Amino acid sequence: MSIATKHGDGGQTGLAGGVRVSKADLRVEAYGAVDELNSTLGFARSICQNADIVAWTESIQKTLFRLGSLLATAPGTTKNPPAVTVEDVEQLTTLVHTIEATEGILSDWSLPGAHTGAAAFEIARTVCRRAERNVVRLAETGAPVDPQVLAYLNRLSDVLWLFGRLLELQAGVDSRLRDDQHAGARWSRAW
Questions:
Q1: Is the dihedral of CA 49, 55, 60, 63 positive or negative?
Q2: Distances (CA, A) of 45 to 49, 55, 112
C-alpha cells in the first residue's frame, strides 16, 4: 500500500477515528505543529554531543508522538488515543529543577546562536511555543483538549531553553544578552 493515497488532494485529511476535516482545521494545525516540533527535536538530537540531552530528547520525542495522537483523535470517536499523564509533566518539571541546579547555568535572557547545538534547541523551543499557542486556540473554540497537553508543552519549552543553556555552559560559551553594565533583576530589561 502506498502512502500516496490521494485522499488529501482536495484539502482534507482524516483524523484518528475516521472523521474528515479541512487541513486548515485548528486541530490539524495543533497536531501539525507538534509533528514539526518532533522533527525539529530530531534534528537537534542528531547534532547534540551531550549523551544525557540526547537520551532526554529521545524520550520527549516518544511522548510527543502520544501527544500528537491525542490531538489527532476526533472528539467523540470510539478510538482511545494514548494519554499524556501528570507523570509525563512531572518528569519535565523534575528535569527543569535538575538542570537549574547546575552550578553556573544561565538564569537570565540569552542570545540564541552562540553554540550550534544550543541554537537547534532554541529553534525547537520556539516551535514548541507555537504548538502550545495552536493548542490554546483549539481549546478556546470549546474543543475538548486534555489539560495535560498544555501543561506538557508549557513545561517542555522551559526544558528546551535549559538544554541550550546546559550545552553552552559545557562548551564554555557565554550567551548572556545582558552584560555587566546592565545589571538588574532576573528577567528584567537587558538593554
A1: positive
A2: 8, 9, 17
**pLDDT tens digits, residue range 66-120?**
999 888 877 777 677 788 999 999 999 999 999 999 998 887 888 888 899 999 9
Write out the chain in H/E/C secondary structure: CCCCCCCCCCCEEECECCCEEECCCHHHHHHHHHHHHHHHHHHHHHHCCCHHHHHHHHHHHHHHHHHHHHHHECCCCCCCCCCCCHHHHHHHHHHHHHHHCCCCCCCCCECCCCCHHHHHHHHHHHHHHHHHHHHHHHHHCCCCCCHHHHHHHHHHHHHHHHHHHHHHHHHCCCCECCCCCCCCCCCCCCC
**Confidence at residue 160, expressed as pLDDT on a 0 to 100 scale:** 98
d(CA 16, CA 80) in angstroms, rounded, equals: 9
With contact defined as beta carbons under 8 Å apart, do 116 and 171 qualify? Answer: no
Cell 520556539 belongs to residue: 126
* pLDDT tens readout for residues 39-59: 999 999 999 999 999 999 999
Phi, psi angles (nearest 5°) of residue 13: -140, 165
| Pair 84, 45: CB distance under 8 Å | no
Q: What is the pTM of this model?
A: 0.85
